[in-house]
Amino acid sequence: MRTKALLLLAVCMAVVIGAEVPGAGVQTKRDQGAKQIKKTLGDEIGASISHLADLRLERERYTIDGTYGYTLWQPDEKETTEHGGTPVVRVALAYDMKPSQVKSTVQARLDELSDVPAKRQSVTVGKKRYKGVAVGPIPGSTPSIEVYVPVQDRVYQQVNLYKEKLDAEGRKLLAGLEFSPPGSVGPLARSPQSQRGPDVSAAG
Predict the structure, then answer these.
(1) Are 2 and 154 within 8 A, CB to CB?
(2) What is the extent of the structural domain holding 144?
(3) What DSSP string runs through 127-183?
(4) Within a domain: residue 187?
(5) Most buried residue, 90, 107, 112, 166, by most Cβ within 10 Å?
(6) pLDDT tens figures, 168-192
């Protein structure tokens, strides 16, 4: 892994190849509204997130488009997809991206989406209020907003929020992120079998 990596937070409709690990890397507590809140740990990428306890965790086995992380799903018994639910947020580290590349990456993304009403907006992320950039909405089978967040010498791309607009719920998820130095990702995730995610800019 390069010394300088870019940590990107994005909510996108990516194919996540992995399995839920019940009880692994999850802490549970109750908020003031009596709703159960979980904190999903992401030590390998250096990004953890607090969220409603009913969301299902799915960790990725391989990198996707140079990023690696995990996705939280809202279970739905009526959903016929293999995941049995709707994606809520994906949190991932972009290994080959530097903080200095965020501006050009965001502009390139907007250029790709010139035929849809996508726009950029500034956001604050995490308890330490890191400055990030959100791009969206990005059309697809599940519309999403990509959030790019530089943290020290790395960038989190893809806090992908699966929403058409950045609402209070989405901002709460962004605020619930915590960052720390990332660990190492195992050889399986960095193997030649690493996957390329789908083109979420294409309408589904």
Answers:
(1) no
(2) 8-179
(3) TTTEEEEEEEEE-SSS-EEEEEEEETTEEEEEEEE-SSS--HHHHHHHHTEEE----
(4) no
(5) 90
(6) 999 999 999 999 998 865 544 454 4
- Taking Cα atoms as reference points, which of 45, 55, 47 lies closest to residue 22? 55
Backbone angles phi, psi at 5, to 5 degrees: -120, 155
Q: How does pLDDT run across 83-125, given as a tens digit for each residue? A: 668 999 999 999 889 999 999 999 999 999 999 999 999 999 9
Total number of domains in the chain: 1
CA-based nearest residue to 145, from 170, 126, 114: 170
- Whether residue 62 contacts residue 193, with contact meaning beta carbons closer than 8 Å, is answered with yes
- Structure-token pair, residue 204: 């589904």
- Structural domain includes residue 203: no
- Hey, what are 203's tokens? 């309408």
Domain assignment present for residue 191? The answer is no
pTM of the model: 0.74
